[in-house]
Specification:
The structure holds two protein chains of two kinds.
Chain A lengths: L2 E7 L4 H17 L4 E7 L4 H6 L7 E6 L4 E4 L5 H7 L11
Parallel strand pairs in A: 1-2
Antiparallel strand pairs in A: 1-3, 3-4
Chain B lengths: L9 E2 L6 H4 L4 E2 L3 E6 L5 H16 L2 E6 L4 H8 L6 H6 L3 E5 L9 E2 L6 H14 L1 E7 L11 H17 L3 E7 L12 H5 L2 E10 L2 E11 L8 E7 L3 E4 L2 H5 L8 E2 L4 H6 L4 E2 L3 E6 L5 H14 L4 E5 L4 H10 L4 H6 L3 E5 L7 H15 L3 E5 L10 H17 L3 E7 L9 H6 L5 E10 L2 E11 L8 E7 L2 E7 L3 E2 L7 E2 L4 H7 L9
Parallel strand pairs in B: 3-8, 3-9, 4-5, 4-7, 7-8, 15-19, 15-20, 16-17, 16-18, 18-19
Antiparallel strand pairs in B: 1-2, 9-10, 10-11, 11-12, 13-14, 20-21, 21-22, 22-23, 24-25
Helix pairs in contact in B: 5-6, 13-14
Classes of the chains: A alpha+beta, B alpha/beta.
């Protein structure tokens, strides 16, 4: 299963850079190579943000697998990101 | 120094009445918060700001919707005859959809800001070269994010960004109560130097909409609440009461009242741009006075507009016919329009709006309202006062003649709310009174005041026959007619017979 992800940022702000860094780390460690990531700068491509109704940046959009889901923020809370991506981390509970 | 501070430039909005109460419009390149409860007309006002910008000033606009989807919105404003879709396709208006996606729940992980929203708004502004922006229902933004402080801070940043773009912005904000704080979430404290409050109160079982300018930092404006209406023809129309009263001129041109004797009593007729109040009990001859007055216009080939509030068009026409005046013919010839609306069917603000519209359409040279006092029933005293002032000042503004009648509650003497409310704004007051003389009902007419000229001070008897009103000689030897309790000043019956009228009226 391949994850199709899209990360919206606005310019090279500290939020943006942290989000890119965190996403890279998550993809490498948790998604094991099965991902496609597009990084979109809203300042350069506002029409795409319009279509996807992006208000906040950074916003990570999980396009596939469905359901489509938005994760807002610099992705520093890894547990929340994994929850949003429906990835079950190594410390998940089977109860 | 305060004395050297420059007044902030205003942007005329094009919303009827709005630029008068704000003395010129919204503070230019600034953000104004419009707060109000649900259904108070915030969105209509904001949208009208955009539409008037496009249609009257050639200024494009951006509409940012936080609550309703653009599709719903386009559907909703169609009832005002506003084709949002068309203006969007013509690139006169751009829409930014910031409404929440139904069922979508975003997860928050770490810090963020609303730069994407600002970037989208900036993109929309530059794509249509907008001068006006509205952010509708920003309150809907708060539940989408866990931290309200971030949303407030970001709205502040958006407002600052819009100021840099050189656009004038309206932010609408929902209130939960008509009184108390401006709005929820404390947005206005962060965002705007300018706050307008729209209210929609229930007063004596009638809805009454008002607008108040709470603050305009560094700019003058009118204080207090102003009534406004929302209707499908004009959208929001604000009734700027005090603002219109001031610029009335005075004409010395006289026009006939339709009763030659009355003109003589007034020193040669009524002034053309004056308001005449005819006050009397039921059956005293008010409608007859109106008929004479309307006929005088028709005979001179001028248009007259008659507002009937108590009688139907058929009754008014039939009454006139009984005095030999053909209203139907005059209507066919385009010299007369009779508008009959029962006062209770709508609020007084709406009545005022419709009447002003009728006047502006028909362009009459004289107007009659029969009777003004009937409208007392349709609203609170305050609304009624505003209605009377709004109508009479509009008539004066157009420099035409207005005759309004007032039904007094008592047969003899007495005064009513109408009289007390409007006596100061009328130029001429004519009293029609019943006079009981030796067990007989007679009628007396007096000119109580007439601004700017001498007038007869006598109380004259008048009679009504099939040709209308005939003013006779003054009453003599009797006083206290106006109070309703006349006293006779003669000692013998012979004096009475000889002196009551000089000369004695013929029996008709």
């Amino acid at each position: 299963m391949t994850y199709r992800l899209r990360l919206y940022i606005t310019g090279r702000t500290s939020h943006s850079m942290r989000a890119i860094e965190n996403l890279r780390d998550i993809c490498e460690k948790e998604l094991r190579g099965q991902f496609e990531v597009e990084v979109i700068d809203v300042l350069e491509n506002p029409a795409l943000a319009e279509n996807e109704k992006i208000l906040a940046t950074p916003t990570l959009v999980k396009k596939l697998p469905e359901p489509v889901r938005k994760i807002i923020g610099d992705l520093s809370d890894r547990q929340k990101v994994l929850l949003g991506l429906d990835v079950f981390g190594p410390d998940k509970n089977n109860d | 120094m305060a004395t050297e501070r420059k007044e902030i430039e205003k942007l005329p909005t094009g919303i009827p009445g709005f630029d008068q109460i704000t003395t010129g419009g919204l503070p230019k390149n600034r953000t104004t918060v419009v707060a109000g409860t649900a259904g108070s007309g915030k969105t209509v006002l904001a949208l009208q700001f955009l539409f008037a910008g496009v249609h009257e000033y050639g200024q494009a606009g951006v509409f940012v919707t936080f609550e309703e989807s653009p599709a719903d919105l386009m559907q909703n404003v169609r009832s005002f005859g506003w084709d949002l879709e068309d203006l969007v396709s013509q690139k006169k208006i751009a829409v930014v959809d910031a409404s929440p996606e139904p069922g979508e729940e975003a997860i928050q992980s770490g810090t963020f800001d609303l730069s994407a929203l600002l970037a989208r708004i900036e993109n929309a502004v530059s794509s249509v070269k907008a001068k006006r922006v509205i952010l509708d229902a920003v309150g809907a933004l708060f539940p989408q994010f866990t931290d309200s402080n971030i949303v407030r801070r970001e709205l502040h940043r958006i407002a600052a960004g819009l100021r840099r773009l050189g656009v004038t912005t309206i932010i609408t904000l929902e209130r939960t109560d008509e009184e108390g704080g401006v709005g929820r979430f404390g947005v206005e404290e962060f965002v705007a130097d300018n706050v307008l409050i729209l209210r929609n109160r229930l007063e004596q079982e009638k809805r009454r909409r008002t607008i108040e300018i709470l603050k305009f930092r560094g700019a003058v404006h009118q204080k207090g609440e102003y009534p406004f209406t929302v209707d499908s023809e004009a959208g929001v129309t604000i009734i700027p009461l005090s603002a219109i009263e001031l610029k009335q001129r005075s004409s010395i041109i006289r026009v006939p009242s339709g009763v030659p004797e009355l003109d003589k009593m007034c020193g040669g007729g009524m002034y053309r741009d004056s308001i005449i109040l005819v006050s009397g009990a039921t059956g005293a001859g008010k409608t007859l006075t109106v008929t004479h007055y309307v006929k005088a216009a028709i005979d001179a080939g001028q248009r007259a507009l008659l507002f009937g509030a108590e009688e139907s068009r058929e009754q008014l026409t039939r009454n006139a016919a009984s005095w030999g005046v053909d209203f139907e013919k005059a209507e066919r010839e385009g010299l007369l329009r009779i508008v009959c609306r029962y006062p209770e069917i709508m609020g007084l603000e709406d009545h005022l709006l419709r009447m002003r519209r009728d006047i502006d359409e028909f362009k009459p040279s004289r107007i009659a309202v029969d009777s003004m006092s009937a409208y007392e029933r349709a609203g609170s005293r305050k609304s009624f006062r505003e209605f009377v002032i709004g109508l009479t000042s509009h008539i004066k503004h157009l420099e035409i003649t207005g005759l309004i009648t007032n039904t007094t509650p008592m047969l003899m003497g007495g005064e009513s709310i109408t009289e007390t409310h409007i006596s100061t704004i009328t130029d001429t007051i004519i009293l029609l009174r019943y006079v009981e003389l030796h067990g007989e009902m007679r009628r007396g007419l007096a000119i109580l005041k007439m601004r700017g000229t001498q007038h007869e001070k006598d109380i004259r008897e008048y009679v009504i026959d099939s040709e209308g009103m005939h003013i006779k000689a003054p009453f003599r030897g009797i006083h206290g007619i106006l109070t309703g309790t006349p006293t006779y000043m003669f000692t013998r019956e012979r004096d009475n017979l000889a002196d009551m009228f000089s000369p004695r009226p013929e029996q008709g």
